[in-house]
């Protein structure tokens, strides 16, 4: 009998036609076209990973009997919603995670000096209005008490700090207080002109970051959720030696096209550290993928816990 003989790429193109047309009107037309091109490229190998370390061999023994549990401040502001996962990440690595709201620092209920490190969390600070990370930073820079507190903490070579998503934007805007961070970028609206929530693949680059010691060269999937993640270096050359994380395409090369590069950052740059590696900023959310089941896709052979736990174990070992 009669049968229909069509190439899969033709069927895919027809199926995407209306949604692609809408996406071109709603979003940046160039990124819409780029996403369609990737979807229609049936030679693309798809997501792939590479581990350069054994995730089953922890960098330190978490929760070992008698092992001290340094205090880490899980820092949040109005609207932040990533503090529970961040606290879990540090707790599992052997820290005592303490919930610290910015109002706690402003009123004196907490002082950063009492902590070994802090993690500035992400997720819709100030309702995720444009420039929310800048607003968070200015609440520190324009307060004599907070400016002095953060400057003293960030200059102390026995302390560490991590900023993720809104926390990344906030710490980037505090670069003037961070030794060795003068070449850090600001973070501006994604090229797609949309909030990007997807699974991306990043490569861990050689850098002094204490969080990524021994993880260099690994390619890992990670949760992405941001509207202003494009690194803007203000026409300066990116400081390659301070880049610790970049998006890569399905062939493992620095991602320059959407959606492998979800925000349009040059060379896929999405994480940086200061010169001595104590302060690290990331746009993606490794704390949201602490277990293999947290991924929408992960290699079946991966163990549980997720390889991302190593970065938090590295921080615990560094405090030792």
Explain what the structure shows.
This protein is α/β, with parallel strands linked by helices and 320 residues long. Helices cover 27% and strands 18% of the residues. The chain has eight helices and eleven strands. Strand 1, helix 3 and strand 2 form a beta-alpha-beta unit. Helix 1 runs antiparallel to helix 2 and helix 5 crosses helix 7. The longest helix is centred in the N-terminal third of the chain and has 19 residues. The protein starts with 7 loop residues before the first helix and ends with a helix. The mean pLDDT is 92.
Q: What would the average pLDDT be, to the nearest integer?
A: 92
Helix content: 25-40%
Structural class: alpha/beta
> Strands of the largest sheet, in order across it?
2-1-3-4-11-10-9-6-7
Instruction: Estimate what percentage of residues fall within beta strands.
Output: 15-25%
- Kindly provide the radius of gyration, computed on alpha-carbon positions and rounded to a whole number of angstroms: 20 Å
Summarize the main sheet.
Answer: 9 strands, mixed
The outline comes out as: globular
Order of helices and strands: HHEHEHEHHEHEEEEEEEH
Terminal CA distance reads 74 Å
Number of beta strands: 11
Number of helices: 8
Which spans have pLDDT < 50 for at least 5 consecutive residues? none
């Amino acid at each position: 009998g009669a049968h229909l003989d069509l190439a899969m790429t033709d069927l895919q193109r027809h199926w995407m036609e209306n949604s692609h047309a809408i996406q071109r009107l709603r979003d940046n037309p160039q990124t819409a076209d780029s996403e369609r091109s990737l979807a229609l490229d049936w030679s693309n190998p798809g997501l792939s990973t590479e581990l350069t370390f054994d995730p089953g061999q922890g960098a330190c023994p978490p929760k070992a009997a008698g092992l001290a549990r340094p205090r880490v401040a899980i820092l949040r502001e109005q609207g932040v919603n990533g503090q529970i996962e961040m606290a879990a990440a540090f707790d599992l690595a052997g820290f005592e995670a303490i919930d610290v709201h910015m109002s706690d620092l402003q009123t004196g209920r907490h002082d950063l000096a009492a902590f070994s490190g802090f993690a500035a969390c992400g997720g819709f600070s100030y309702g995720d209005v444009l420039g929310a990370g800048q607003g968070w930073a200015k609440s520190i820079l324009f307060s004599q008490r907070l400016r002095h507190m953060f400057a003293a903490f960030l200059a102390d070579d026995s302390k560490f700090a991590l900023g993720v998503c809104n926390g990344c934007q906030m710490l980037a805007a505090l670069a003037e207080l961070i030794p060795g961070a003068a070449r850090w970028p600001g973070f501006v609206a994604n090229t797609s002109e949309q909030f990007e929530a997807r699974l991306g693949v990043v490569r861990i680059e050689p850098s002094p970051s204490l969080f990524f010691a021994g993880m260099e060269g690994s390619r890992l999937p990670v949760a992405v959720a941001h509207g202003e993640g494009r690194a803007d270096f203000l026409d300066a050359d990116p400081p390659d030696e301070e880049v610790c994380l970049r998006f890569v395409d399905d062939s493992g090369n620095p991602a320059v096209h959407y959606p492998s590069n979800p925000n349009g950052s040059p060379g896929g740059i999405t994480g940086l550290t200061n010169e001595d590696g104590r302060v690290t900023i990331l746009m993606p959310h490794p704390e949201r993928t602490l277990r293999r089941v947290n991924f929408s896709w992960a290699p079946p052979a991966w163990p549980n816990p997720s390889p991302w736990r190593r970065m938090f174990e590295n921080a615990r070992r560094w405090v030792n």
